[in-house]
Amino acid sequence: MTLKKHHKWIIGSFSSLVIVVLVVYGILINGLIVKQQINHNEVSNRIDGVQADTQAKMNELTESIIEINSGLEETKTTLEKNQLELTKLKASASSDFSGIIEDAIKSVVTVRTDVGQGTGFIITSDGYIVTNAHVLSNGNELYVLDYEQNKLNTEFVGYDAELDIALLKISGSYDYLELGDSNDVSVGEKVIAIGNPLGLQFSVSEGIVSATHRAVSSNELEAYIQTDAALNPGNSGGPLIDKNGEVIGINNFKANSGESLGFALESNYMVEAVNEISQEILNKNLI
């Protein structure tokens, strides 16, 4: 059957209307999709912003915690320094070395051989000990006793005959004495000597520095501190300690012809001798 003209016009109009509707619908759908995409981007941007802000605040918090911890460490260090200064001040002002003695005496040892005894002290955390070489003279056996009277096997490392220094070694980990600069020692400052005079272990005597850079007849080196702190047989090899708790000399001998005339090899010479021995034997400096 052949369509009449007005039928064709109706069908064409309807088709055009359907197409227009589909186009409009497509435009609306696309608009919704675009809007959703925009909304999604905005949400993503907000989330990224929140995350960045959160991370920045976390970084600030972490830095604050680090600063607080650093402040606590500084405060702790300051308190420790203040306590040390208080101990030094106490020793300097009132002649009370009790706090220094309590710490120092734990690093002092009795050095014994089969023919005699003297004193020594620990100079490194791994057990190196310095004493006078003459303490070991003619001995065939060697050991040390620590402050708690433990008998410790001892290794002889080496010696310096001119400065009368011997280096020993015990196994283990130990508290040790700090060494001061003997060039800073002043005449008149108070000192203590720790040793084993006449076999009286870990005895302490107090005195002052009578002179520095004294020369003695044995080697003519101007290397000795003169002190009136009591030194007797058995004190040899023990430390001479200042008000800061540092070793400024190693007690060596006293003049038999007079009273209160003791001599200690200055710590700087002792360090030089110890390092020469350790370089020769161990290929390294100890102190």
Structural class of the secondary structure composition? Answer: alpha+beta
- The H/E string reads HHEEEEEEEEEEEEEH
Sheet-strand content, in percent, reads 25-35%
Number of helices: 3
Q: If you compute it from the alpha carbons, what radius of gyration comes out, rounded to the nearest whole angstrom?
A: 42 Å
Please state the average pLDDT score.
85
Looking at the overall shape, the CATH architecture of the largest domain is Beta Barrel
Tell me which oligomeric state these chains represent: single chain
Task: Report the sheet with the most strands, covering strand number, pairing sense and barrel closure.
Answer: 7 strands, antiparallel
What CATH calls the topology of the largest domain is Thrombin, subunit H
Q: Give the C-level CATH assignment of the largest domain.
A: Mainly Beta
* Uncertain runs: none
Q: Total number of β-strand segments? A: 13
- The CA-CA distance between the termini, in Å, is 122 Å
Strand sequence of the main sheet, in spatial order?
5-4-1-2-3-7-6
- Overall domain count: 2
Q: State the shape.
A: rod-shaped
Fraction of residues in helix: 25-40%
Question: Can you describe what's shown?
Answer:
This protein is α+β, with helices and mostly antiparallel strands. The chain folds into two domains: 46 residues; 192 residues, Thrombin, subunit H, CATH 2.40.10.120. Helix content is 39%, strand content 26%. It has a seven-stranded antiparallel sheet, with helices on one face. Strands 8-9-10-13-12-11 form a six-stranded antiparallel β-barrel. Strand 12 and strand 13 form a beta hairpin. The longest helix is centred in the first third of the chain and has 90 residues.
